[in-house]
């Protein structure tokens, strides 16, 4: 199979920029040359007219009123001078007699001048023209004393000096264009390198990430980060996105390893207890009685609950459990949930205070009840004295905020960002004694997020805890 033709990003950008700049320079040069030619030709036509008027003025100055005629020698000198500049002059007196005729005086010289002008205009400038004659009256003291006939190549012509000037301008434009093209190519390559470098860096980093995460989990993952401080906002965002992706993958792997370790730790205790009790009963060390069987059943239920909690959490995190949304009063759910904990709270001398108001909401009734049961369970568990306050407030016209505050032992500030992670315990010994696995708040957070809400905790060690759950009224 033939490999498709491809070009690198750097070369593609450099080529695109170079072609664009060269095209722009070409168009600019064309416009400059066009307008320069138009203005220059207008100037040449004006100069021809001015020169013709100048010739007539000189001829008028050569008229001798005493002799009633022209100074023939002077007219010839002037005429031959202007022949070399491309002007074929003929002077006639007032009676129509020829005073001096350039062609009659030096026909060969005139033909050479005409030939040079024709070759110059037709050969070098590709402008076809013909010799034309303009007649000008010669006046003296407001009286016509003769006529000057000036024959030139029309509609206009360039002198040798003007031709050299145009050639110099064209050479200058050509050299300038070539220099600008070279500079544009260099600048295009530099710009392309600047733009493509972070993109290629991001592509290389993404490829490395794909490679290192395709190998076994037992291998140590290298930390991959790329520079993200670029002046171009989009390139900085791209680099930051790659770094964020790498960080999230690293965190996901860390959590996966931690999850495996935590699950193994949580399963080890009940399984070990079951193994010891069953082996002892098999060997006759322990009698098979109701108390032993109840102990084994308790451990089995602990395993069952753990597996169910893990399944619930995984399903919520992957959004595989549909929410059964109905409209109900959120305050009623909080009231019923709080009533279930009042007896256990009373045994510890804790009061549960309710500050509720009617709060209609569209959500999954049972899931939200599970959220509040998990939070209140922790509040009762970690509060030895004082009170627990449950309130609901309307933050705006679209959200309800449920606040559950206790006067318990609180949570250390470094642990606050971690309490919604799976298997995290701020007080492992207390959690273990009550049989908790550290999944309750993770499930609560997953349910709240599935509803499009948010959950947060504020606390200080020894100063109680405050949990805030914000939910949309109509999801």
Q: What would you note in describing this structure?
A:
- The structure is a single chain.
- The protein is an alpha+beta fold.
- It contains eleven helices and 13 strands.
- 20% of the residues are buried.
CATH topology of the largest domain: Beta-Lactamase
- Sheet bearing the most strands, described? 5 strands, mixed
Give the overall shape.
rod-shaped
Order of helices and strands: HEEHEEHHEEHHHEHEEHEEHHEE
Question: Total helix count?
Answer: 11
Distance between the termini: 53 Å
Percent helix, as a range, is 55-70%
How would you summarize what this structure contains?
This protein is an alpha+beta fold. It has 11 helices and 13 strands.
How would you describe this structure in keywords?
four-stranded antiparallel β-sheet, Heat Shock Protein 90, 11 helices, Beta-Lactamase, 475 residues, disordered N terminus, 3 domains, alpha+beta, rod-shaped
Any chance you could write out the topology, listing elements then pairs?
Blueprint: H1 9-61, E1 63-64, E2 69-70, H2 72-83, E3 88-93, E4 98-101, H3 102-105, H4 107-124, E5 130-140, E6 143-154, H5 160-212, H6 233-282, H7 290-317, E7 325-329, H8 330-347, E8 350-355, E9 360-364, H9 365-381, E10 386-394, E11 399-406, H10 428-433, H11 440-450, E12 454-459, E13 465-472
Parallel strand pairs: 8-10
Antiparallel strand pairs: 1-2, 3-4, 3-6, 5-6, 7-9, 10-11, 11-13, 12-13
Helix pairs in contact: 1-5, 5-6, 6-7, 7-11, 8-9, 9-11
């Amino acid at each position: 199979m033939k490999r498709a033709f491809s070009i690198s990003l750097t070369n593609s950008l450099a080529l695109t920029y170079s072609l664009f700049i060269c095209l722009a320079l070409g168009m600019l040069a064309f416009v400059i040359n066009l307008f320069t030619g138009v203005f220059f030709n207008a100037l040449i036509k004006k100069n021809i007219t001015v020169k013709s008027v100048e010739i007539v003025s000189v001829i008028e100055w050569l008229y001798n009123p005493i002799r009633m005629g022209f100074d023939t020698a002077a007219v010839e000198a002037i005429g031959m001078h202007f022949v070399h500049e491309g002007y074929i002059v003929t002077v006639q007196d007032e009676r129509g007699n020829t005073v001096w005729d350039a062609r009659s005086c030096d026909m060969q010289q005139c033909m050479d001048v005409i030939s040079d002008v024709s070759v110059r205009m037709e050969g070098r400038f590709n402008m076809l023209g013909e010799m034309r004659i303009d007649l000008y009256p010669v006046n003296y003291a407001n009286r016509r004393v003769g006529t000057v006939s000036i024959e030139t190549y029309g509609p206009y012509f360039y002198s040798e000096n003007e031709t050299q000037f145009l050639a110099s301008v064209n050479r200058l434009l050509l050299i300038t264009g070539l220099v600008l093209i070279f500079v544009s190519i260099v600048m295009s390559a530099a710009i392309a390198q600047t733009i493509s470098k972070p993109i290629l860096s991001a592509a290389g980093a993404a490829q490395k990430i794909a490679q290192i995460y395709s190998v076994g989990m037992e291998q140590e993952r290298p930390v991959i980060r790329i520079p993200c401080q670029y002046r171009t906002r989009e390139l900085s965002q791209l680099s930051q996105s790659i770094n964020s992706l790498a960080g999230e993958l690293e965190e996901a792997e860390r959590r996966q390893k931690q999850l495996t370790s935590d699950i193994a730790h949580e399963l080890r205790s009940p399984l070990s207890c079951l193994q010891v009790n069953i082996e002892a009963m098999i060997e006759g060390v322990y009698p098979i009685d109701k108390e032993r069987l109840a102990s084994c059943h308790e451990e089995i239920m602990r395993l069952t609950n753990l597996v169910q909690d893990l399944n619930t959490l995984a399903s919520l995190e992957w959004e595989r459990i549909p929410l059964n949304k109905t409209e109900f009063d959120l305050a009623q759910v909080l009231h019923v949930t709080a009533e279930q904990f009042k007896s256990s709270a009373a045994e510890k001398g804790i009061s549960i205070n309710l500050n509720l108001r009617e709060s209609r909401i569209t959500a999954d009734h049972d899931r939200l009840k599970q959220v509040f049961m998990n939070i209140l369970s922790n509040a009762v568990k970690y509060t030895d004295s004082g009170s627990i306050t449950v309130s609901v407030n309307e933050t705006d016209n679209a959200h309800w905020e449920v606040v559950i505050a206790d006067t318990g032992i609180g949570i250390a500030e470094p642990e606050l960002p971690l309490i919604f992670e799976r298997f995290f315990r701020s007080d492992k010994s207390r959690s273990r004694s009550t049989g908790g696995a550290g999944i309750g708040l993770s499930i609560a957070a997953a349910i709240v997020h599935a509803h499009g809400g948010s959950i947060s905790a504020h606390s200080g060690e020894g100063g109680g805890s405050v949990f805030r759950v914000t939910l949309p009224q109509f999801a």
